[in-house]
Amino acid sequence: MNRLSEKCAIFLLCLPGFLMAGSVVVPVLALLIAICLSAAAQLLSGSFIAWALLFCGSAACGVFPVLVCALPLFLYDALHERKWWLIIPAISFTANLSQLSTQQIICMLTGLAVTVIWYFRVEGLSQSVDHLKSLHDDITEKNLQLAEQNRRLFEAQDNEVHVATLTERNRIAREIHDNVGHMLTRSILQTGALQVINKDEKLKEPLAELKSTLDGAMTSIRASVHDLHDDSIDLKRVLQEMTEPVDNRFDVTLQYDAGEYIPGEIKLCIAGIVKEGISNAVKHSNGDRIDIIFREHPAFYQLLLEDNGHPSSAAGADGSVHTERKPLARGIGLRNMEDRAGSVGGRITFTQSEQGFRIFLTIPKGQES
């Protein structure tokens, strides 16, 4: 659109030269030829046809000298094509120079000078705009890269804090279990021994109350240690660590989409089933890929573990590897997974097909024991 408006301005510079012609038909015809050639050259810009049209238009100035008044228009198109020499044939108009008036020649030369100045000024401005756009794009890209690096840095820092928090919780739980738990256990045993050897009726009730208090404290300590231990389990990290030993043989992908709070029983169940599933794949699958997907939905948890091994490699009930396709048998590993799922109110299914072996587990929320 800019090129068209610029050519319209140049056309206005060329128009006085045509208006100075003595007749009407020839200038109008030359003007129409110039407009058509220039429009076609712009439409076919960058092609050999456009160059040929400009060359022919320049050469036609020798036949129709009045056409030289449109030479600034041809020059502008030739400059845009990066082939200014296409207007050199227009020099042939000098053979019929007498057919042009001095004013027309002055208009033509003025138009050429203005066209050259205009083109280079516009071209310089266009290059500056392109350079600014390039700088803007580079800055935008670098800002996006910086934002991404900052996001990764914050995630890494958050992950380090999270891991440190879980480690500290695990340490506290271990300290409570090893120190306070052992001392309470010893106190409970000593109190029980005192109850056995005590002969004083007045001490029976205080000793019973003491033992009851110690038993309650022990129960509370166990619950606290259990909760701390469960909170210290990072299920995503545990699943990632399980996949690392088999990376050399299997292409393992893990998709984890769950919230931060997951009951400890669910974590242990998921970790146990994934561990058993990977172990079975290593022992019995002839595939090269394992996909693990764990998602938390509003009402239930969902686990999918599958490999692309052929059914002929499925394990039988005795743990041996079949060499031909046989119905799926419930071995010890599969029964253990069923027991784990049942302990938290979940439902697990095993599917054997030409696409591989699939383990699918769903655990309703609020039904874990």
- The total of helices stands at 9
- Unreliable residue stretches: 312-327
CATH architecture of the largest domain: 2-Layer Sandwich
Mean pLDDT: 76
Kindly report the spatial arrangement of strands forming the biggest sheet: 1-2-3-5-4
Name the overall outline. rod-shaped
Strand content: 5-15%
The CATH homologous superfamily of the largest domain is named Histidine kinase-like ATPase, C-terminal domain
- Biggest sheet, in brief? 5 strands, mixed
The amount of helix comes to 55-70%
The number of domains:
3
Class from secondary-structure proportions: alpha+beta
What fold name stands as the CATH topology of the largest domain? Heat Shock Protein 90
Number of strands: 5
CATH class of the largest domain: Alpha Beta
The span between the termini is 73 Å
Q: Which value, in Å, is the CA radius of gyration?
A: 44 Å
Q: What is the string of SSEs from the N terminus onward?
A: HHHHHHHEHEEHEE
Describe the protein in words.
With 369 residues, this protein is α+β, with helices and mostly antiparallel strands. It has three domains: 2-100, no CATH class; 158-231; 235-364, Histidine kinase-like ATPase, C-terminal domain (Heat Shock Protein 90, 2-Layer Sandwich), CATH 3.30.565.10. It is 62% helix and 11% strand. It has helices at 2-19, 25-43, 48-59, 71-80, 102-197, 201-231, 235-243, 264-284, 332-343; strands spanning 251-257, 289-296, 300-307, 347-353, 356-364. It is rod-shaped and about 145 Å long.
